[in-house]
Specification:
Mean pLDDT of chain B: 82
Structural class of chain A: alpha+beta
Distance between the termini of chain A: 51 Å
Strand content of chain B: 35-45%
Order of helices and strands of chain B: HEEEEEEEEH
Number of helices of chain A: 6
Shape of chain A: elongated
Low-confidence stretches of chain A: none
Helix content of chain B: 10-25%
Distance between the termini of chain B: 50 Å
Order of helices and strands of chain A: HHEEHEEEEHHHEEEE
Radius of gyration of chain A: 26 Å
Oligomer: heterodimer
Number of strands of chain A: 10
Number of strands of chain B: 8
Structural class of chain B: alpha+beta
Largest interface: A-B, 36 and 31 residues
């Protein structure tokens, strides 16, 4: 029994570094909640709080993210919550744009088309109804989705490579109603071999 | 009338179920001599799911491609606009690609990608016939959210 316990202890000692991830050195960060004036998309705000993160790499080497990198939120009460991928966040918060109001629009178009042949006066109001019922809401949804996806994938995306001595603006979507304590990017490295955790403390929000 | 409606619905289903929207491949680059091939499938007006394989190896990637300025207007529909593609791979690399794609139809373009190690990938779109000549895996299944290589 003693020997077994000793063995377990030894194994824990030896593989300690492998089990507990090391913390990424020399990366500084500051974090702020984005105000309503700067981020207006209601479909996103319904599910998420929007945080702005400023990341600075103070190392002399570039910090590399990997495809194993996961973003998790450490909270006071709920423990650890793993964030969905950007793809998932976008899907959840976008406005539906394809197949919107087609139920109204297709018969509307048919009727208006038939009538336009006979009388122009009844046909054009019907066509206007189709425009208002189908084209306008779809167009609005597409424009909103472009703005959301630009924000998530183009302007404020987490870069896959943090160059030394450079600051990056990253926009994070954090689930609503959680007490956020710490944000952790797992599996961050210098060479894609030794993996570190990038931990960011959230203070007095 | 009933038979006509049945035929119409069958036709629509068969059109929507056959193949992908657009097939893509990479040109042979000096750094990485291998060819990548794949496809993307459009999900709404601006985004599509992507799957990419490396020829001759087990490397595969998946992710999303986003059109930055889609248009529903009839004019200038053949203009090329920016699109961003982010792919995660099973060898830990993330490939970020800037595409130039047709505004309205979301295809027919070219792009240049870079991964964390600054390797460069040249992408272009190809026809289904060309894809069949290149591809080892003819059937492409797109990843769901929980088994995607792009975790964040």
């Amino acid at each position: 029994m003693k020997r077994f316990i000793c063995g377990v202890l030894l194994a824990v000692l030896c593989f300690n570094s492998a089990v507990i991830a090391k913390e990424m050195p020399n990366v500084s960060a500051s974090i702020t909640i984005t105000e309503l004036e700067n981020y207006k998309h209601k479909t996103v705000r319904k599910h998420y709080n929007v945080y702005d993160l400023k990341l600075t790499n103070n190392n002399t080497r570039a910090v590399l993210l990997s495809s194993d990198t996961e973003l998790s939120f450490i909270t006071d009460y709920d423990g650890e919550i793993i964030s969905g991928s950007r793809r998932h966040l976008y899907r959840k918060s976008r406005k539906r744009d394809m197949g919107r109001y087609y139920g109204i629009a297709l018969p509307g178009a048919l009727i208006s088309g038939c009538i336009t042949v006979g009388t122009l006066f009844i046909g054009s109001p019907a066509a206007a109804a189709v425009f208002a019922g189908m084209y306008l809401p779809t167009d609005k949804a597409v424009r909103t989705n472009v703005a959301i996806s630009q924000d998530m994938f183009n302007k404020n995306v987490m870069p896959s490579r943090l160059e030394p001595k450079q600051t990056y603006n990253v926009r994070l979507l954090v689930p609503k109603d959680i007490d956020l304590n710490e944000i952790v990017f797992s599996n961050v490295s210098f060479d894609l071999k030794d993996m570190y955790d990038l931990k960011i403390k959230v203070e007095e929000l | 009338m009933k038979r006509f409606l049945l035929l119409l619905s069958l036709g629509i289903i068969s059109i929507s179920a056959c193949g992908c929207n657009q097939y893509i491949t990479t040109e042979i680059t000096s750094q990485d001599g291998d060819i990548y091939y794949g496809a993307y499938n459009r999900r709404d007006m601006i985004h599509a799911d992507v799957k990419l394989f490396q020829k001759g190896t087990d490397k595969e990637c998946d992710g999303v491609i986003f059109l930055n300025a889609p248009s529903r207007s009839i004019t200038f529909k053949n203009d090329l606009v920016d699109a961003t593609m982010i792919l995660g791979c099973n060898d830990k690399t993330i490939i970020t690609t800037e595409w130039q794609l047709k505004k309205r139809t979301f295809n027919d373009g070219y792009g240049e990608g870079v991964d964390q190690l600054n390797r460069i990938y040249q992408f272009k779109t190809i026809s289904r016939k060309e894809f069949k000549e290149i591809a080892e895996k003819q059937k492409i299944e797109f990843a769901k959210d929980d088994n995607s290589f792009l975790k964040y």
